[in-house]
Design brief:
Layout lengths: L2 E5 L3 H13 L3 E5 L2 H11 L3 E5 L7 H9 L6 E5 L5 H9 L3 E4 L4 H13 L11 E4 L2 E4 L4 E4 L2 E3 L3 H11 L8 H9 L7 H15 L9 E4 L3 E4 L3
Parallel strand pairs: 1-2, 1-3, 3-4, 4-5
Antiparallel strand pairs: 6-7, 7-8, 8-9, 10-11
Keywords: DNA-binding, Phosphoprotein, Transcription, Transcription regulation, Two-component regulatory system
InterPro entries: CheY-like_superfamily, OmpR/PhoB-type_DNA-bd, Sig_transdc_resp-reg_receiver, WalR-like, WH-like_DNA-bd_sf
Pfam family, one: Response_reg
């Protein structure tokens, strides 16, 4: 079972989530502050980080940015304010998904499994390495390079790119992408898609404001097609 690091300052939430995940077989390490959580990362080596957005001292967004400086560890944010602007900031900082508290353990478990499946994308029978302009995508090895240099992608970024490049020139609505990449079958949050597209463009485009690879079709969605 995946090893989970939970950074949450509310004792009742922390203990409840920890107990629920342990009952499902997860090994769980907890921390009450962002600083303590960062210290635990290297020692515990989790498979996934559950990160409270509103932490004392170093907040969740700052922790997320610090993690993304050196790691593509899957990150799910926990927030009590699902409609807040802070959620967008967290997604822009590199979080793969978010859950609004309070949440049942089975919901958290489902999101954990969905995020981790994004780093297990099969090649689907396609050629292992595909070339799209300056991008080289190894579907079997789950790696992406631009002009020969490896690009580090978070799980949601990688899954999104693999999905878009599996059908170049096809237009995907935000809802379609939510269902396939995030496995949100209904009432999905389009902010997840838009934030992930922006992060991906920052990594693969020469000029993110004038994208060459990921095109926006206003009112319809996104498509992949090198110009």
């Amino acid at each position: 079972m995946p090893r989970v690091l939970l950074i949450e300052d509310d004792p009742s939430v922390r203990e409840g989530v920890e107990l629920g995940l342990r009952r499902r077989g997860h090994e769980v390490r907890t921390a009450a502050t962002g600083e303590a959580g960062l210290d635990a990362l290297g020692e515990f080596r989790p498979d996934l980080l559950l990160l409270d957005l509103m932490l004392p001292g170093m907040n969740g967004v700052q922790v997320c940015r610090r993690v993304r400086e050196s790691s593509q560890l899957p990150i799910i944010m926990l927030t009590a304010r699902g409609d807040d602007f802070d959620v967008v900031i967290g997604l822009e900082a590199g979080a793969d998904d978010y859950i609004v508290k309070p949440a049942r353990t089975e919901v958290i478990e489902a999101r954990i499994r969905a995020v981790l499946r994004r780093i297990e994308e099969p090649s689907g029978g396609r050629s292992a390495v595909e070339f799209h302009g300056e991008l080289a995508i190894d579907r079997a090895g789950l790696t992406v390079a631009k002009s020969g240099e490896r690009i580090g992608l978070a799980p949601s970024e990688l899954k999104l790119l693999l999905h878009l490049t599996a059908a170049p020139e096809q237009v995907f609505s935000r809802q379609q992408l939510l269902e396939h990449v995030w496995e949100h079958s209904y009432h999905g949050d389009a902010r997840l898609v838009d934030a992930c597209v922006r992060r991906l463009r920052n990594k693969i485009e020469d000029t993110p404001g004038e994208p060459r690879y990921i095109q926006t079709l206003r009112g319809f969605g996104y498509r992949f097609g090198p110009l």
